[in-house]
Design a protein that fits this description.
Blueprint (H helix, E strand, L loop, with lengths): L4 E7 L4 E7 L5 E5 L2 E5 L4 E3 L1 H12 L3 E6 L8 E2 L1 H7 L5 E5 L2 H11 L13 E3 L4 E4 L2 E7 L8 E5 L2 E3 L21 H11 L7 E3 L20 E3 H7 L9 H13 L7 H8 L24
Parallel strand pairs: 3-6, 6-8, 8-9, 13-14
Antiparallel strand pairs: 1-2, 2-3, 4-5, 4-7, 10-11, 11-12, 12-13, 14-15
Length: about 290
């Protein structure tokens, strides 16, 4: 199996991992889950994290063909639209075709116009769709459960599962957002577990683990394998059945607070990271619906 080159970038403020993936023979590249800096206290956006991706691409002479989202994230704003507009106009922004369901749910909540037709994304992927990245073939695997639009991307031996799988000691993502379902996530993960055990898994989020009783803990990590997930994942390792997972996930989700950036993030990310157009005074505004969540 072909082995792409994967460079990881950690966004400490949101615990997000972004990736530049490229075919070593041709230099054809994809950027996965890029982050737009956003300070909720001041309302300021920034492109520092995204600029690091651009610098890597330029330094290695890569041809960015795709800007890929694993789903419409609720914990950070996407930089995909900015990257395409400012640096990679030839690249296509892609996401799973379940984004139309996300748009149907959230466009009315935020009072945003437009149809739930997937725009302004350039391409909506169907389950098991495949596309070339230079000499690599990328397979799209629909993994709903966390959200209805969740996708995993399998590029050669490298899997990017979004929030479906975290590092083994962190388990899996929540399923209590609109369109989420714990049983569906369990079945989606079983599909990923059909991949070869040596498949590299690059997670979308990790915050590290604090030390307990004098232990060192660990720094944020991003890479594991399918075999390690099957053996060690605290939520879905081998031997944990669907009913047990659903009970655990449901109880855990009921105890979780809403993500700090959910309201600003979702309204931007369901539009591929495009910020609202400026009002007559030249200022852009996000919308905060009251008493809806």
């Amino acid at each position: 199996m072909l082995r792409p080159v994967v460079q990881a970038f950690h966004h400490a403020g949101t615990g997000t991992w972004s990736y530049v993936v490229h075919d070593p023979a041709s230099g054809a590249a994809a950027i996965i889950d890029p982050v737009l800096d956003f300070d909720a206290k001041s309302g300021r956006t920034g492109t520092g994290a995204a600029q690091a991706l651009v610098a890597h691409v330029r330094a290695h002479g890569l041809d960015v063909q795709w800007l890929l989202e694993t789903h419409a994230h609720a914990d950070h704003l996407s930089a995909a639209y900015w990257l395409k507009s400012a640096h990679f106009p030839q690249a296509r922004i892609g996401i799973g075709d379940g984004i139309r369901s996300v748009q149907r749910t959230f466009l009315p909540i935020f009072g945003l116009g437009g149809d739930a037709d997937g725009t302004p994304f350039d391409h909506l992927f169907a389950d098991d769709e495949r596309f070339p990245l230079g000499g690599l073939e990328v397979r799209v695997i629909a993994v709903p459960g966390h959200t209805s639009d969740s996708n995993a991307y399998l590029a050669g031996d490298a899997l990017f599962p979004g929030d479906s799988l975290f590092m083994p000691d962190s388990g899996t993502a929540r399923c209590d957002f609109p369109g989420g379902d714990a049983a569906t996530l369990y079945r989606s993960i079983l599909r990923l577990f059909e991949l070869p055990g040596e498949t590299r898994v690059f997670v979308c989020h990790d915050y590290g683990k604090p030390g307990i009783d004098g232990s060192e803990g660990r720094e944020p990590g991003c890479e594991t394998t399918i075999a390690a997930q099957q053996r060690d994942n605290i939520h879905v390792r081998d031997g944990i059945d669907e009913a047990t997972f659903v009970a655990m996930r449901s109880a855990r989700d009921a105890s979780l607070a809403m993500p700090a950036l959910m309201l600003p993030a979702v309204q931007v990310n369901l539009r591929a990271g495009a910020l609202p157009e400026p009002e007559a005074n030249g200022t852009r505004y996000l919308r905060i619906p009251l008493d809806r969540f």
